[in-house]
Amino acid sequence: VSRSQPGGSLCRDLGSEGALNACSNELKVPYEEGRINMKKLRGIIFDLDGVICSTDEYHYLAWKALAECMAIPFDRERNNLLRGVSRMESLEIILARGTKVYTEEEKIAFAEKKNMIYRSLLAQMSTSDLAEDVRNTLDVLKTSGIKLAIGSSSKNAPFILDRIGLSTFFDAVADGNCILRSKPDPEVFLLAASLLKLDPPECIVVEDAHAGVEAAVNGGFRCAAMGDAIDDERATWHLKRFADLLQIVA
Ligand code: B16
Ligand code: MG
After folding, report:
1. pTM of the full predicted structure?
2. What is the rounded CA–CA span in Å between residue 207 and residue 227?
3. Which residues does a 6 A CB cutoff place in the pocket of ligand 1?
4. Ligand 1: which atom is nearest the Cα of residue 208?
5. pLDDT tens digits, residue range 92-124?
6. Would you state the pLDDT for residue 38?
7. 49 part of the active site
8. CB 3.0-4.6 Å disulfide test: which of 37, 89, 107, 172 passes with 85?
9. Is 47 considered catalytic here?
């Protein structure tokens, strides 16, 4: 069942739990010291779509459905440009391939239509859409005493977290409902860090978008890149699997 609207400003700081460091794996993913003045790792800020869960695929399907209605060419390569950027900026990137000019009201209506399609796909998600390695890795990180936050451009983040059973898991959630500027601006990550009461050099950001890696670096964070952004040279670590994070914190 689809919930009506994302729940307004749900950015929160729930405090941290646990202090035992349960991770003892050897660091196998090298990092480049000196790019950012490193401090002891105390927090991890996760992007949501494409990192915690595969909702990036639903974004693609929903934008594709809209683009087809408008006879605008759209494919997965184009879709990769939308990762991490806001809904309205995404629409502008799609419309740039078309020939027609639209009013602001029409653009808002297009974005709402896309969001309705997207939310109907999200509504079908359940806790089984949280991959086992993500769940297990998050559990290990939580018991290690490292604070965990979400830093997502999405206004649907509270709804998604609810669907996959993580609505109360994170120590803080900063999302598209709480920010004025989306990635590559660092606002969402700086907000997440401040909710955790940590400074950027004490945190790392996990991202699947080039815009997100750029946002992390712009904010003074070290970044672990994965998925579409795995080869981004601005990232400190390059994660083949989500569980590789455990090698960073060891
Ligand atoms: P919404 P993330 C981002 O989430 C998506 O990567 C991006 O494709 C999307 O346009 C943006 O959220 C806004 O999403 O329409 O749900 O508000 O990757 O930053 O977690
Ligand atoms: Mg993402």
Report:
1. 0.85
2. 8
3. 47-50, 59, 82-87, 90, 115, 152-156, 176, 209
4. 18
5. 999 999 999 999 999 999 999 999 999 999 999
6. 61
7. yes
8. 89
9. yes
